[in-house]
Amino acid sequence: MQGYLNEQNKTDDVIVELNNRRWYKTGDKGHIDNDGFLTIVDRYSRFAKIGGEMISLGAVEAIISPHLPDDVEILSTSIPNDKKGESIVLLFAGDIDDIALKNCLKQAELSPLTKPSTLIKVDAIPKLGSGKSDFNQAKNIALGEVYTNIKRHPL
Fold it and tell me: What is the pTM (predicted TM-score) of this model?
């Protein structure tokens, strides 16, 4: 917080008051449960820019998840695409193969812009020590997998 000491303009940009409580804007999405615990569920910065449209990667996951078996975990990320700007890549882990996952995606009735272009099977969705999804590692996996064609399942 050193950069904010005696810098009221900077402080005003990152501190917000909600329900008589001051919060630091981190860019995380979360909710407070009945016991007062804050659970972080996503980041506001998780977007893909496809054909000039901003697509929420969290929203893509939320549309797909209800159509998946309970033991399947997914995480979406984006990679550069020369024609569209970016493409969505879906990492998946659990007891499902790419054919069954493609059927789940059909059931989810994603719009063409929100449909992942590539599916990558991983042993486990990358996590930080806190248990939160590791978005940087997911992107690195997607970049490596897509460009080397290892375990690649294009849609």
Answer: 0.72
